[in-house]
Amino acid sequence: MLKEISIGLGLASVISMALMGYDVTPFLFFVAAGGGLYYIARMRGMVNANNFESPAGAGRYEISFSDIGGQFSAIHELREALDFIKNHQVIQSLGIRPLKGILLTGPPGTGKTLMAKAAANYTDAAFIAASGSEFIEMYAGVGAQRVRKLFQSAREMAPRQGKNYALVFIDEVEILGGKRGQTTSHLEYDQTLNQLLVEIDGIKIDDRVRVLLVAATNRADMLDPALLRPGRFDRIVRVDLPDKEGRLEILKIHTRNKPLAEDVRLEIIARETFGFSGAHLESLANEAAILAMREKAKEIKQHHFNESIDKVMMGGKLDKRPSEGEMKRIAVHEVGHALISEKIRAGSVSALTITPRGDALGYMRQTPEDDTYLYTKDYLEDQIAIILAGAAAEETILGNYSTGSANDFEQAVRMAETMLRTGMSDLGVVCLDSLPRDLKHNTLTSIMRMQEERVKNHISSSQHIFDVMTEILLENEKISGEQFRKILREHVA
Ligand code: ATP
User: Fold this and answer.
1) Cα–Cα distance between 200 and 203 in angstroms, integer?
2) Of 315, 376, 483, 491, which is least surrounded by CB within 10 A?
3) What percent of the chain has pLDDT over 70?
């Protein structure tokens, strides 16, 4: 950016000098000569060429598969492919062509880079890493030059480390290996990808240093088909978000070096963190330790973990402090959500708070019963009821509702749309494209009205609970699920 601004300013000065009558020819000559030299230097990789042997990109890594949690199938598949490489004599004797590339696909933070490092360790290979974005330049030919240099560095590094294998890891490979002809400066992109294909095709079983390419992407759909054809990335390994057991394994890995208090239940944390990646869980364990340090505690307690779940889910606490009236409204809103959640599924409230975090002024966190991948009609209706309960509580208890419910309404509409799309509405299975707008609107409204009525009836008959809960919430800012249920038991006759 700075470079572009400087070039713009330089050009503007030269033009104004020319307009003022100065002779700018010598200046232009020097700029042209300098630019030419700079371009040649870049082409030769002398200026700003990636030093792939930098400590961040290369070296010895001691990560092993036992440091990776919740990826049993992916590790199994990857290991099988690596065994194929390790037993190269057998495959050579059978005339099997070597495995050249392994593609790891999956959401961010699930451990793809860790898997590549563990693969290098497992095969006792020199490890060299680069990211797809490092190859993309506005100067034609530079990306291709960097790809060549990356593979060459790998071949040189392995003997220096006394190894027969080199593992080249390219993260965000979709940037460098996207479908050809789709970008504006496609000549440069195409040349870079072509060079990668050339390097992959050049890998041979009898090379002095056997190179294996491992690449990672969150967008396998964007890759050029040439990369995915047999003989290039021969193995595609899916690295998914961990399930409950997987999350527990990852939490155990990231709390290995941390003193945990007796009350810590990693199983509960694993249950409450559906949708978290390994990176989220690592951050959660780290945040819990930081909170313990701030409290000068010697051990990390369960409440530190609970607080750090909120932080990782919702963002850090905000300094903004709503007025007293607003705090009361937020409390009523959150108690509304919690009350209906607990009524629909006893034990489902994990915590409610009126501390502003991220985009939310307050929130109620539910404990998922189990990891859920499919939703029934009852489940979606119940969730719509819980979502609408915040606004319904404001209206019933305070007489009107506020703009604070806008996000809730959007979420409720999305769920109602899911019901319509999946044939769960009164219309049955429909073709959404040919559905008249009015009919769609009326159906969505009727789904939501029904849940609103259901919720309002319950809230009207529980006004005294709101008085008690909002008072406690205003005093403590937070109520845990257990506390909430205890107060409910005490106040529901
Ligand atoms: P991206 O797609 O964003 O590059 P990635 O899938 O390569 O992400 P990593 O860089 O491997 O993710 O993971 C980031 C960090 O998250 C790791 O250093 C580790 O601390 C933690 N982590 C991620 N997945 C796991 C896992 N399965 N087991 C243990 N730790 C994990």
Assistant:
1) 6
2) 376
3) 85
Q: Kindly give the pairing relationship between strand 210-217 and strand 233-238.
A: unpaired
Q: Check: CB of residue 154 under 8 Å from CB of residue 209.
A: yes
**Pairing assessment for the beta strands 165-171 and 101-105 based on DSSP bridges:** unpaired
The pLDDT value recorded for residue 220 is 87
Q: Whose CA is nearest to atom 31 of ligand 1?
A: 278
Q: What is the pLDDT of residues 444-491, one digit of tens each?
A: 999 999 999 999 999 998 888 999 999 999 999 899 999 999 999 987
Residues paired with residue 105 on neighbouring β-strands, in sequence order: 217, 238
Q: Which atom of ligand 1 is nearest to the CA of 253?
A: 29
Q: Answer for the pair 123, 85: CB distance below 8 angstroms, yes or no.
A: yes
Domain that holds residue 201: 58-238
Catalytic residue among 249, 287, 334, 394: 334
49 in any annotated domain:
no
């107060």: which residue's tokens? 487
400 alpha carbon – ligand 1 mean position (Å): 46
The pTM of the full predicted model, rounded to 2 decimals, is 0.77
* Cα 218 to middle of ligand 1, angstroms: 13
Q: Would you say residue 319 lies in a domain?
A: no
The reply to whether 277 and 426 lie within a common domain is no
**Which residue's CA is minimally distant from atom 11 of ligand 1?**
111
Same domain flag for 234 and 249: no
Render pLDDT for 130-159 as a digit per residue (tens, 0 to 9): 988 887 765 556 788 888 999 999 999 999
| CA 413 – CA 207 distance, rounded (Å) | 59
Same domain, 88 and 173: yes
What lines the ligand 1 site, CB under 6 Å? 68-71, 108-114, 171, 216, 218, 250, 253, 278-279, 282
With CA atoms as reference, report the closest residue to 78 among 109, 129, 117, 107.
Answer: 117
Active site (annotated) includes residue 134? no
pLDDT digit string (tens) for 8-60?
666 667 677 676 776 767 666 666 665 555 544 444 443 444 455 444 344 44
Average model confidence (pLDDT) across the chain: 85
Distance 198 CA to ligand 1 centre (A): 30
Q: Indicate if 157 and 180 belong to the same structural domain.
A: yes
Pocket perturbation via mutation, ligand 1, pick of 102, 110, 117, 238 by most ligand atoms within 8 A of CB? 110
Q: Is residue 48 part of a domain?
A: no
Each residue of 399-442: pLDDT tens digit? 998 998 999 999 999 999 999 999 999 999 998 888 999 999 99
Residues 291 and 179 in one domain: no
Ligand 1 nearest atom to the CA of residue 217, by list position: 2
Domain end residue (candidates: 285, 314, 343): 314
